[in-house]
Amino acid sequence: MVIVGAGVGGASIALHLAEAGCTDVLVIDRDQPTSGSTFHSAGLVGQLRGSLPLTRMMMHSVDLYRRLEAHGAETGRVPGWREVGSLR
Asked: The pTM is what?
């Protein structure tokens, strides 16, 4: 499986495919990861959205980031996830 784009979407798809047991996953991008249009959103993960499906997707993302942080030793990568809250 080849995924074009190493942004938040491509990285998420690759992770979920790997977790589902897919062993042949290749992510390609024109530049280094996080250098594209979603670089500005790094660390800005609000959970409340305008619809229930989008809110659930964001809640899933937070759960995923917590899991990646907790199991960084297993993956060899610790994302540095810190929950600090927000105010709007």
From this structure: 0.65
